[in-house]
């Protein structure tokens, strides 16, 4: 059973892990671009100041351009702050998928659910309103695990049962049916 949980987890979440890695790379790329633009604005402002001092640019033009660059640099500073906070939050949850699987493997043969198990494995649980479907009350729960979030395990499709008919001797046939259907 432990290996099947492991396989389901690995197969079901490889896509999510790949997406998370791409998001991290995209955020890092955006962060690097913002830092580069901030440095470029510093250089532009220095050249603009030098051009103003040397008389190449009029004072009113210098004021307009410097205000534009300062405004852009302020906006960049805010964006950098937000991206750095997001990176820090992602770093706080740096526990990798493999670490989570190692934790799960500790409890694959557990007979009883303990508070320690819950604390190590579960981040939080969403509880939805109960609904009456076909005269049966059903309530949906979504468990968000540490490091990996909610795991959606797809319904297992039932395989078609082969009709096996064996001719044992002349006029005698034995038919095998699945255990659930056999009477």
Description:
A hairpin with a 3-residue loop joins β2 (136-145) and β3 (149-150). The protein has 2 domains: 2-94; 99-150, no CATH class. The protein has 183 residues and is an alpha+beta fold. A 3-stranded antiparallel β-sheet has the order 1-2-3. 57% of the residues lie in helices and 19% in strands. α1 (2-54) packs antiparallel against α3 (97-106). It starts with a helix and ends in a 7-residue tail after the last strand. It contains 4 helices and 5 strands, in the order ααααβββββ. The longest helix is centred in the first third of the chain and has 53 residues, at 2-54.
**Span of the ends, CA to CA:** 29 Å
Give the DSSP E fraction (strand runs of 2 or more residues).
15-25%
Mean pLDDT: 76
Report the principal-axis shape: elongated
Number of helices: 4
Helix content class? 55-70%
Number of self-contained structural domains: 2
């Amino acid at each position: 059973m432990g290996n099947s949980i492991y396989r389901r987890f690995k197969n079901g979440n490889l896509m999510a892990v790949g997406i998370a890695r791409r998001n991290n790379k995209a955020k890092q790329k955006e962060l690097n671009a913002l830092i580069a633009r901030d440095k470029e604005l510093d250089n532009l402002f220095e050249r603009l100041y030098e051009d103003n001092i040397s008389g190449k640019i009029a004072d009113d033009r210098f004021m307009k351009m410097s205000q534009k660059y300062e405004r852009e640099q302020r906006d960049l500073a805010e964006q950098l702050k937000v991206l750095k906070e997001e990176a820090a939050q992602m770093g706080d949850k740096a526990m990798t998928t493999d670490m989570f699987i190692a934790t799960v493997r500790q409890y694959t043969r557990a007979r009883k659910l303990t508070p320690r198990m819950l604390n190590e494995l579960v981040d939080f649980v969403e509880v939805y309103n109960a609904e009456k479907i076909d005269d049966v009350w059903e309530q949906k729960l979504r468990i968000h695990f540490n490091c990996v979030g909610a795991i959606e395990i797809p319904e297992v499709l039932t395989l078609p049962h082969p009709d096996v008919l064996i001719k044992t001797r002349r006029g005698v046939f034995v038919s095998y049916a699945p255990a659930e259907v056999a009477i």
